[in-house]
Every structure is written in C-alpha cells, then in structure tokens.
Amino acid sequence: MTATEFALRTDGLGKRYRRGWALRDCTLALPAGGVIALVGPNGAGKTTLLRLVVGLLAPSTGTVEVLGHDVTASTPQTLSRVGFLAQDHPLYKRFTVAEMLRFGRACNLRFDQGLAERRLAKLGIPLDRRAGTLSGGQQAQVALALALAKRPDLLVLDEPVASLDPLARHEFLQVLMGAVAEGGVTVLFSSHVVHELERVCDHLVVLNHGRVTLTGDIDTLLAEHRLLVGPRTATDLDQASAVVEAVHSDRHTTLLVRDGAIPAAPGWQAQPVALEDLVLAYLRRPSEPSAAVTSGVAA
Amino acid sequence: MTWLIWRQHRTEVCVLGLLVGMFGIALLVLGTQAHDLFPGGPARCAGDAGVNEACAASFRRLDEEYGFVENLLAGFYLVPVVIGAFLGAPLLARELEDGTWQLAWTQAVPRMRWLAAKLAALAAVTVTLTGMFTALLTWFRQPFDAWEGRFQYDAFDLEGLVPVAYALFAFGVATAAGAILRRSLPAFGVAFGAFLATRMPVALLARPAYALPLTTMEPIPVGGSKDQEAPSFADWMIERGYADATGRRLSWTEYYELEAAANRAGANLNQFLHARGIQQFKVYHPADRFWTFQLIEAALFVAVAAVLIGVVVWRVRRRMI
To answer: How many CB pairs under 8 A join A and B?
Structure first.
C-alpha cells in the first residue's frame, strides 16, 4: 500500500500538556475510504488525537501524516483537503446561516456553495436565521454542511452526535452517511458511545488513557476474536497473551480470546463476540505501553 | 478575509467610530468658539507675546468659558486605551471562548495568515481612530497650550504621538491577555489595568529622565524675586529652590530658617538673601523638547506592544493555543 492510500498515518505520536500526557506512543495507519470510529471513554485523548490530525495542535513527539502530507506544514492545499467538525459544532453565533456560507467561501479554495445550500434547503434550515438561534441539531447540520462543502478528502468529526437528541442524531448520521455513499470522502469520527457503530463504521480505533489499545477493520476484528465459555478454571489465564479478558462466575469462566491462539478444549464453547463487548473488554484492560492490538490492513 | 474581519468586528468598530465621532463634533463646535477668542490664532499669544493685554483678555475668557472643558478632557487620556483594548481583547479571546478557533483555523487559510490579517486590520483601525481623535484634541487644545505649554499631564498625554502609542499598547496587552486568559472581558480589564499601572510610573519617573534637564542658577536680585525670563512658563519645571553662594542646594528647612532670621532682623527678605549670596535655581526641560519626549515615550509603549504581539504570534505559530 502506498502512502497516499492511507488517510492517516501517525508514528509515535504524543501530546503532553502541562498536567501530563494526553496521548502517548500513538502509531496508526488508517486506510482511505470508509468510516473510521475513534472510541474511548471521556478523557481518553480522543479530542487531542483529532486536533493533532487536523493540525490544530502541534505534537510533542512523533509525526502525523494526513493523505500523504505532513499536517504541521499547514499550507492552503493541505488544509483544504481536511474538513473538521469540532465538538459542540462551533459556529459564529451572530452570523446568519448565509453569512456562515460566505465565511466558508471566503476561507476555502474549492468551496461548493451550491452543495451546502441544497443540503440546508433539504433540511429546511432558513439561510437568513442567525446561527445562534438555531436548534442544536440544526447548528450541527450547518456545521456539517460547511465541512462537506469544502469537498474534503478526509472529514474529521469530534463527538458529532454527543449533544444531539435521538432524532437529530439519526438525521445527522443519515446526512453524514449519505455524503460517504456519494463517495470520495474518508470519515474519522470520535464517540464514547459504542452501540450503533457496527452499522456505520468500517474501521475501529480504541483509545484509553491516552494510548491506542485496539485498532483494525471491524469485520476482521470480529472474526479474530471469540468468546470461550467453559467450566470455571483456577489457572491464571489472564496472563496468557491471547486472552483479552477472563471473567469468572461461580461455575463458568468466560474468556475473550484472539482466534487461533487457544485450541478449543473439550467442554468449552466458542461464540462470536459483539462489537460492544469487544470494545468494553479492551477498555477494561489495564493500560500497558505494549498492549496495542493491531489488526487488518495495518498488521 | 477582509469581509470576515469586517463582519466579525464591525460592532466594535462602529461603536468606537460613533464614540469618536460624537466627541469629535462636540470638540469641533467648542473648539471653534474657543479659537475665535484669539483673532489671528492662538499661536500668536504663545510665549512672551501672551503678556500683552489683548492676549491676556483672551486667556481670561478662555479660562472662564472653556476651562471646564479642559478639566473634563484631562480624563480623556483613557480614550485611546479603551479603543485599543476594545479592539484587541476579542481578537483571539472571542474565538477561544466560543470554540470557533477550531473552525477558523481548519479552513484553507493558514493560521499565520489569518492572524497577520487580523492584527494588521485591527491595529490599523486602532491607529486611525486614535489618530483622528488625537488630531482633533491637539487642535482643540491649541489655545490652552499657548497659555500653559504642552508639558503638563493634561496636555502631553493627550496630544501628538503618545495617545496612538497608548492605544497600540492597550491593543497588544488585550490581544495577548485574550490569548492567555481565553476570555474577552478579563482581557479588556487586564489591558486597562496594565495601562493605569504603567502610566503613573512612566509619567512621574521615566518621563523626566528622557533627557538631562537644564539648570539655571541666578543670584536673587535685590529688587525682589520676580520670575526670571528663562525658563519660560511653557517649559517643564522639574524642581526649583534656593542654593547658597557656593551653589549648594538648600533644603526647605534651611530656607525657612533664613526667612525666620530675616524676619527677626526686620530686614527685607530679598535684600537679606541677596546679601548672603543666596541663589535661586530651576531645573527644567525646555519647551522645544516636546517632540523628542513624545517620540521617546511613543517608542517605549509601541515597543512593549510589539513584544506582546510577538508573544501572541509565537504562541499561535507553535500551536500553543
């Protein structure tokens, strides 16, 4: 795979604030095309990673390469290939929607005003309303329309639906996925909600305590992992490297293992694992520097 | 970018423009009337000419009719600070407050270009508004300056170059404080406070030391201590007092002792002092140093502003915001 086929590559990426490391040793290679979910609890370093990706922050260590270009260069060309929707979808509250579009046109190289106007008209968002008077869902839609009108090759969204009600969330994801289906754009978005991801995403990155704990193509990850349920064992299976997590109940032991590593012993049943359980198992693991599990294209 | 900057800052620019415009019209109306008191212009009454009768009458009427305006204007040295702080505070702070910096700096305009355009445009507005305001005020004060000179605090701080420098100083402090505090209103307060805290020491301690003051030393004439020709009233008097025959400066206690001795002896004070070779000295800056002092003080404040703007540029460049 050549460099440009990666939407995003990071190498040893780290960011330290005054209060400590927000992100450490982050090495990723995410394929272009499709939807990538960045999952982790609050404070895991998701926002920091996304800001590093779009060049809003400078890394303390390591490098970030977006679409084959170093983002710290920040030329108009590299900036115009990346769209960003920050958390809480900030807009200039006193601008009208039309003025927000004019802002986009004034500050971009290939801004598609017609596209943005069509999207907003379809959603029934009037152009003469001030952005601050729109509902949260409408503001998110305006911000998304702005980001998409840049015609970016990579669209980065930080917790895009976290502050939206279920209906607005549904509509937002519908528009986003519609844009993906039209083709050409790679979407990287963060979320602390794990369900619904399976339906929407192709690729997964799990971040915990400032470190990447799991990354890979979702189908591959699900195929590689399975749950083994058997009689309760006393042996210290937690230490085995193939065992992601061991849960002991009174009579049974449930192991989440990476495929092929442990032969199915007699009396043990193998089951596929749900994505949410897989993510939660990795989030529960104590953080170790070498714990990152990579799968799929990056392997 | 031009449209964006105008759209984002038009409220401040319009409010300040209106303010300056209103003050300007008031000053223009009052100033025209005050100037009319001086047929041939107030400059003709400046300096020694001011003692002739026509000028003295004009000055008297000026004081009676427009003296209150002059007193009001003494507080106007803060107007440039308000202008600079009002334009500088929201430059970065408002973007940081609202989170829109993430929007602004992820468009195709690189952040350094964005920052350079904003700084240049808003600093230009600051200079233009204060420049207009100061030009008008300088013109308004011409009759008063002819009377009192331009070195007093209510003249020096309001005229010439320094108000523009004060405004740029406030602009720089407000911008830098906004970048660090991430809030507009506290940034405005910091700029205002910083100016007030700087201005006093500068006016009282630094300004007299911009150049070595001149000293005159003359024996007390027998006929009495009528004010000597030089230094004139337009000069900036730093210190005056008495010295003995050797030139050693007398403390005021020593002087009062002499005065008491003269009273005891029943002698005329001037004759008494003259007989003992007491001299009168004056330490002052001559009036023609006005522009030199203006340049030095303006350079001082502009330099501080430049350093602060440099810090802001450095922080934005290093992506520390």
So the answer is: 75
> How many C-beta neighbours within 10 Å does residue A102 have?
17
- Contact A51/B102, CB-based, under 8 Å? yes
What domain range includes position A160? Answer: 3-218
The pLDDT of residue A290 is above 60: no
pLDDT at A3: 47
Cβ-contact A200, A177 below 8 angstroms: yes
- Mean per-residue pLDDT over chain B, rounded: 89
Side by side, the strands of the sheet bearing B236-243 are B214-219, B279-285, B236-243
A42 plus A135 within the same structural domain:
yes
Site of tokens 């008063």 = B144
Helix, strand or coil, per DSSP, at residue B308? helix
Residue A87 identity (one-letter amino acid): Q
Q: Which of A54, A76, A143 sits opposite B109 (nearest CB)?
A: A76
Give a yes or no: residue A295 inside a domain.
Answer: no
Mean pLDDT, range A146-162, rounded to an integer:
93
Pair of tokens at residue A238:
């937690």
Structure tokens that stand for A150 in this block:
């840049």
**Alpha helix ranges (H) inside A26-108:** 46-53, 76-80, 97-106
C-alpha span between B187 and B125 (Å, rounded): 19
DSSP track, A224-279: HEEEEEEE---S-GGGSTTEEEEEE-SSEEEEEEETTSS---TT-EEEE--HHHHH
Helix axes B290-317, B111-140, angle to 10 degrees: 160
A8 and A44 housed in the same domain: yes
pTM above 0.80, yes or no: yes
The reply to whether residue A83 touches residue B7, judged by beta carbons under 8 angstroms, is no
> How far is B5 from B11, CA to CA, in rounded Å?
11
Closest CA to A34 of A210, A162, A155: A155
Among all residues of chain A, which has the CA nearest to that of B2? A106
Does residue A71 fall inside a structural domain? yes
Per residue in B129-157, pLDDT (tens digit) is 999 999 999 999 888 888 788 888 888 99
Which residue in this structure is represented by tokens 């105008």? Answer: B6
